[in-house]
Automatic annotation (TrEMBL):
Residues 73-226 form the Peptidase C14 caspase domain. Residues 45-69 have a biased composition (Pro residues). InterPro entries: Metacaspase, Pept_C14_caspase, Znf_LSD1. This is Metacaspase-1-like protein. NCBIfam families: LSD1 (TIGR01053). Residues 41-71 are annotated as: Disordered. Belongs to the peptidase C14B family. It comes from the Eukaryota. One of its GO terms (biological process) is proteolysis. One of its GO terms (cellular component) is cytoplasm. Residues 9-33 form the Zinc finger LSD1-type domain. GO terms for molecular function: cysteine-type endopeptidase activity.
């Protein structure tokens, strides 16, 4: 099988995952089309054996002690980036962010003061402009002081990508990333950092809902488990 084949974009060289049997693929960043003459001739990594035991995880044992109070504080970070006036421009990402903010406030009773929203409509020199530094700071703010029972939301709508992993902790050899507005000069935010900032600091009983509307978002939180939805024919 060759369902996990990765090829580089013929224009910007971003790694792209090739669907089975595809003869070409369009890059989500530069929109260039890369032709694939015969996907079966491309190198690929064999799928892991279905009989192999799952790796041990620190998350499969509940910590001792009473259950936490389920009614804690609510905080959210919402990021919407359209990359306007660039070759990476997207449509609807800022609108996604506004809709998410409306939903959290009016449906789930999040206080307006507990939501940080980063979009290009904000002051380019202010803390809510979606550059790499500001997104990082907002992520740190989201989990800072989290207590059992708190409910956190991280929403990102924008470009996602991959970059080569050199630590050996990725099965496919690539880290998943999100792309801040200044990613071409400042770099992307990789899944290792996202996990270290948003997941690891959470105490038992705190909840984080992460909604990532981007390419390669399935494992961008770097969680130990992956949910696969099998569609019926």
């Amino acid at each position: 099988m060759y369902s996990n084949v990765l090829v580089n974009c013929s224009n910007c060289h971003t790694p792209l995952q090739v669907p089975p049997g595809a003869g070409s693929i369009r890059c989500a960043l530069c929109q260039a089309i890369t032709l694939i003459a015969d996907p079966r001739a491309l190198p690929h990594q064999p799928s892991p054996s279905p009989h192999a035991p799952p790796p041990p995880s620190p998350y499969n044992q509940a910590p001792p002690g009473p259950l936490p109070n389920p009614h804690g504080r609510k905080k959210a970070v919402i990021v919407g980036i359209s990359y306007k006036f660039s070759r990476h421009e997207l449509k609807g990402c800022i609108n996604d962010a506004k809709c998410m903010r409306y939903l959290l406030i009016n449906k789930y009773s999040f206080p307006d003061s507990s939501i940080i929203m980063l979009t290009e409509e904000e002051d380019p020199h202010g803390p809510k402009f979606p550059n790499k530094h500001n997104i990082r700071m907002a992520m740190f703010w989201l989990t800072q002081g989290t207590l059992p029972g708190d409910s956190l939301v991280f929403h990102y709508s924008g470009h996602g990508s991959q970059q080569r992993n050199y630590s050996g902790d990725e099965a496919d050899g690539f880290d998943e990333t999100i792309c801040p507005l200044d990613f071409e000069t400042q770099g992307m935010i990789v899944d290792d950092e996202i996990n270290a900032t948003l997941v690891r600091p959470l105490p038992h009983g705190a909840r984080l809902h992460a909604l990532i509307d981007a390419c390669h978002s399935g494992t961008v939180m770097d969680l130990p488990f992956l949910c696969r939805m099998n569609r019926l024919p």
